[in-house]
Specification:
Blueprint: E1 7-10, H1 12-15, E2 21-24, E3 30-39, E4 44-48, E5 71-76, E6 84-89, E7 104-106
Antiparallel strand pairs: 1-4, 2-3, 3-4, 3-7, 5-6
Length: 108
């Protein structure tokens, strides 16, 4: 969970052709998710779920200044494999993306 409002950050390539999305919390509860916005250029998407009771706390978020390397972690549930963690390196750590090349779609 990204924040108290139920936003979930994922990759655009995960949802780009999906007819819908569901989010499963670590306690097994399942929720329909709504697409808030996506950027194919940045391979990011934001979903939102509504959790009425026992909301999970948001993840603590740092800043790029807190990082000492370009190492990243991805937590997920690919192919139904629970509790998966993938690590990687951001290869374009210092690259800048011009704002006008980013084509985002939004359903807000």
């Amino acid at each position: 969970m990204w924040d108290e409002r139920g936003h979930i950050v994922t990759n655009n390539h995960v949802i780009v052709n999906a007819a819908g999305a569901r989010v499963r919390l670590n306690d097994g509860r399942d929720y329909n998710a709504t697409l808030v916005g996506a950027s194919a250029v940045h391979d990011l998407a934001v979903l939102r779920i509504t959790v009425a009771h026992r909301r999970p706390p948001p993840l603590p978020i740092g800043t790029s200044g807190d990082s000492r390397s370009a190492e990243v972690f991805a937590i997920g549930n690919p192919f139904g494999l629970d509790w998966s963690l993938t690590t990687g390196i951001v290869s374009a750590w210092t690259a800048r993306c011009p704002a006008r090349t980013a084509k985002a779609r939004s359903s807000t």
